[in-house]
Amino acid sequence: DAGVIQSPRHEVTEMGQEVTLRCKPISGHNSLFWYRQTMMRGLELLIYFNNNVPIDDSGMPEDRFSAKMPNASFSTLKIQPSEPRDSAVYFCASRLGLASGELFFGEGSRLTVL
Amino acid sequence: GENVEQHPSTLSVQEGDSAVIKCTYSDSASNYFPWYKQELGKRPQLIIDIRSNVGEKKDQRIAVTLNKTAKHFSLHITETQPEDSAVYFCAATLGDAGNMLTFGGGTRLMVKP
Q1: Measured at the alpha carbon of residue A107, what is the angle toward residues A105 and A112, in degrees to the nearest 5?
Q2: Of A35, A66, A81, B11, which one has the greatest count of Cβ atoms within 10 A?
Q3: If you write DSSP's letter for every residue of chain A in order, what string do you get?
Q4: Is the minimum CB–CB distance between B106 and chain A shorter than 8 Å?
Q5: pLDDT number for residue A14
Q6: In the predicted model, is pLDDT for residue A6 greater than 80?
Q7: pLDDT (tens digit per residue) in B37-95
Q8: B30 touching A, CB under 8 A?
Q9: What is the number of other CB atoms lying within 10 angstroms of the CB of residue A2?
């Protein structure tokens, strides 16, 4: 398996633009997570899905952020409109099952909002 | 919810010395404690984990200890090497009841040759 695949790897955009980050989890994994990493706040859990259903989105900073998982092999994180303070590395991760176990991270999407 | 504190935030050691990173957690129900290593510009990767029914676990040069009474756990790296230089994150979760893996703030370890 190629692991968790994220795109784009880098995105530079202007304030106010819509940003869509994409993730393909490891085949067979039924839990998917979106994290945001910044120097100031470390690794923050934004939202996670189990069997394509959002379980907890309490980490989503505000209504400008939304996430979907239309099927078991694809998820998106959308920011509309984007702001400079959204600049961060966004990681998608997947895990087999709901219980504890290794979280497999993608390479991350580095977002810069000017 | 769970709160995980990690210390120190930076740690510099000489090659061959040992390094210890400590974490405390707030929710006594947490029962799964993984450690992730993140090299510069890379993704976090699991290096070792421990469950609450175990007090210590070793894997070659790394070990993790858990004190459930005091609600703290530690990562020990012996005979450090330059390739151990990275940011290390501890985490805690209610492994059975849910997925909420809460990470500590990270420790930047620098191993000087």
Answers
A1: 120
A2: A35
A3: ----EEE-SEEEE-TT--EEEEEEPPTT--EEEEEEEETTTEEEEEEEEETTEEEE-TT--STTEEEEEEETTEEEEEESS--GGG-EEEEEEEESSSSS-PPEE---EEEEE-
A4: yes
A5: 97
A6: yes
A7: 999 999 999 999 998 877 999 999 999 999 999 999 999 999 999 999 999 999 998 65
A8: no
A9: 7
Average pLDDT over residues B82-109: 85
Chain-centre distance of CA A39, in angstroms?
17
Structure tokens at B33: 């404690």
B-chain residues near A33 (CB < 8 A): 99, 101
**pLDDT at res. B97:** 47
Interface test with B, best of A36, A48, A100 (most B CBs within 10 A): A100
Secondary structure of residue B8 in the 3-state scheme: coil
Collapsed DSSP state (helix, strand, coil) of residue B88: strand
Of A65-69, A97-101, B34-38, the one with minimum mean pLDDT is A97-101
